Amino acid sequence: MDSNLFIGIIVLVMSVVIHELSHGYVATIWGDMTPRLQGRLTLNPIKHLDLMGSFIVPVITMTLGAGIFGWAKPVVINPHNFRDRRWGEFWTAIAGPISNILIAVLFAMILRFFADSLPKTFNLFSLIVVYTNITLAIFNLMPIPPLDGSKILFTLFPKVFDRIRDKLERYFFVFLFIFAFFLWNFLSPIINKVVLWLI
Fold it and tell me: Does 20 qualify as catalytic in the annotation?
């Protein structure tokens, strides 16, 4: 396996685990103990990873030149347990992308201020961390069910629209295919500009 691909998979695994852990942790803050009861408040990757989304899809997309992205097993939440359902859902949904942005900013600052004094291998690792996490953040913020962006968007709508969201979520793999092979060419330059701006 190519070394960059191997590093990319490791970084993606780390990033999606933190992403899902953030969802679970914020859900508990708002009163839903479901993630805790399911053992999802952990950094143990075995509890979070999905064979298709965490390994197979990233290898395929990188091999095809469509960047590296994937997903972990979504943290299950019960919004009825939230003290405030609307804001509980909103902050739980946005917590994942925010965690990816914070990781990207942290490693971008390391590159910006300390790159000359660090090993090239670590700089490459840091660059992959920044790129992967910005990609995950932007990808997950897209308003396509069941991505976080759709959950954030639908919290602003009356609950009657939840039925529409539920129906759209059934076609996730169709949306994923469209993203990977059509929208990626549009988003890739945006991701590259954000990464360059950060570092």
Answer: yes
0.90 exceeded by the pTM?
no
Give residue 73's identity as a one-letter amino acid code. Answer: K
Long-range CB pairs of 98-101, under 8 A, 24+ apart, other chains included: 98/22, 98/137, 99/18, 99/19, 99/21, 99/22, 100/15, 100/18, 100/19, 100/133, 100/134, 100/136, 100/137, 100/140, 101/133, 101/134, 101/137
Alpha-carbon distance 2 to 48, whole Å? 25
Q: Which of 9, 20, 68, 79 is catalytic?
A: 20
Cα separation, 178 vs 69, whole angstroms:
14
Instruction: Please check whether residue 78 is in contact with residue 34, taking contact to mean a CB–CB distance below 8 angstroms.
Output: yes
**For the segment 104-132, what is each residue's pLDDT rounded down to a tens digit?**
999 999 999 999 999 999 999 999 999 99
Confidence of residue 37 (pLDDT cuts 50, 70, 90): very high
CB-CB contact of 135 with 69 (8 Å): yes
- Asked if pLDDT for residue 1 goes beyond 60, the answer is no
- pLDDT, mean over the chain: 85
